[in-house]
Amino acid sequence: MPAVTTKRWPMLAGGVLLVALLAAGAHFYFSHRAPKLTGKDAIVLADFINTTGDPVFDGTLRQGLAAQLAQSPFLNILSDQQIQQTLRYMSQPPTARLTNDIARQICQRTQSAVVLNGSIGQIGSTYSIVLNAVNCATGETLATSESESSNKDQVLAALGKVAADIREKLGESLASIQKFNTPIEQATTSSLEALKAYSAGIQARRDKGEAVAGPFFKQAFALDPNFAMAYAVYGQISTNLGDAATGSEYTQKAYDLRDRTSELEKFYIESHYYDNVTGESEKAIQVYVLWGQTYPRDGIPHANSAVWYGFLGQCDKALPEALESLRLDADDSLSYSDVAATYMCLDRLDEARTTFNESVAKKVDVPDLHLTSYVLAFAQNDSATMARELDSLSRSSPESANSAIGAEADTEAYHGHIEKAQSLSLRAAESSKSNDGREQAASRLTHLARILAEVDDAAGARKEAAAGLELAQARYTKADAAFALARAGDTARAESLVSELAKENPLNTAINSMLLPGVRAAIALDRNDPAKAVELLQQAAPYDLSNIEFLATPYERGRAYLFQHKGNEAAAEFQKVLDHPGISLNAIYGALAHLQLGRAYAMQGDNAKARTAYQDFFALWKDADPDIRILVAAKSEYAKLK
What we know:
Blueprint: E1 4-6, H1 16-33, E2 42-45, E3 49-50, H2 60-70, E4 76-77, H3 80-89, H4 100-109, E5 114-123, E6 126-135, E7 141-149, H5 155-169, H6 174-179, H7 184-187, H8 192-208, H9 210-223, H10 228-240, H11 244-256, H12 263-278, H13 281-294, H14 300-311, H15 315-328, H16 333-345, H17 349-361, H18 367-379, H19 383-394, H20 398-414, H21 418-434, H22 438-454, H23 458-471, H24 475-487, H25 491-504, H26 509-526, H27 530-538, H28 552-563, H29 567-578, H30 581-584, H31 588-604, H32 607-620, H33 629-641
Parallel strand pairs: 2-4, 2-5, 3-5
Antiparallel strand pairs: 1-7, 5-6, 6-7
């Protein structure tokens, strides 16, 4: 295999002594005047100048360099999100090529310290890579590194060599470089073509969304079956698009190859393995904590820790993580969304709105933010903002439009417009199916089944649960279907699904600690064993305030207490739902909790409080579909209170 060597310029024999003295003087001068970077000194990566005429290097070398430099806990690389945001301020398209001039302008506008300008040239079969670190304020070259490869196959190795060299010249210790410097051909890929596809996928994901990006990552690991990060990113894209089975499959493939990756990539793969494959929330958090300690300038582990803490109902722990993520990635849209969602989880709705307004002022704009703003506006009874956000989502990608339909369906159900909620849900499911989103469609149908079960439409719940399971049987689809079937009286099918879920997900926190206790409790209630239902639901009590279950657990525990004729205990559970509008949001439990609270007060003999609670429910359902069974029953109950 041809060696990759650092470029050495030949010296004329007659000038050896003079050149040596000059070199020594130059080294002394450089080492005493070149500033060493600090944690506050950000670096902007420019696109490589490619004079070879070979398009395989376009975009690829910058991506490869970014992957190599990202291994460094010392360097602070300006994120692509920050670059895109700055390009917008410069009236440049977010896809603009980062020429040396544009990169320097970005560097100046973001008060970064250095631009890394790279180039690749070719003479015969030899390729030469040059990397310059330039002070973006003065234009002065602070450090230069060069490397040659004797053929195209060794270009990535040469790139890794200049990356390590420039790290040292910018002030990183040799010990750090030696510890965090997995060769690019091992950590990422040895295939230029695979890296080219991966780079195109990263750009497509950033510019056009998940669905468009997926095929590029599939191409990357088809070209290099050992490309762990290509599997990992494709797995996460699949998960984000609602295809949990595919997400789990490809995350597992990445996990099996994790020993071939850098430390940073290993953190990414292991954390997503616990996210997408095993569902072990505590282990995922442990990885994120270690990731954040090892790479203190990386906002991703803090953002994902915040998500997991919210998932566990520990939003007090989520908030400092979300705020730290935003501090580190002030132009990252997801950081704003995480902070706003965490404030909502803590019922600090005004602070959540302030966070969203800050993102608007910074022109940070992604669908997730609009969806967060929509449910926040619902909690704040702001119908104008709700309408505006739905319109914005509807004009975005097909995935965002479907999210808008789903959010609208939940709101309609909250107000007792069950027929409209059903129509919207079916429309969203059909749209998902037409876009190869069978799992998203299945999820929407089984979610609808749960809504129908809550309003005592047993036949409708069984129908939609069956339709969802026919499309796909991912873990959360099964869990929703099992709950709906249990509430609808089909306990045999519900028990079968419970057995499958327990067997298939032995370590999953959500399945075993939150969802299955709820399904088993519903089965117990169907068998007139409310004591067993309460016992099962107490197992899930640590997760009552989880921001993914929308307070379903305390709501169902309240129902179980009603079956036991324990009005005081039931009222406390339903009041818990009403006390946390930032968690319940537009889930149907928030509306039905008023009715159930009225039933609990009536059971206590406090008819005055019961009437008030019923009236609150009727106000929310003032124009509800008249023939909903739970509404008909509520009106009959209320009449007896007078």
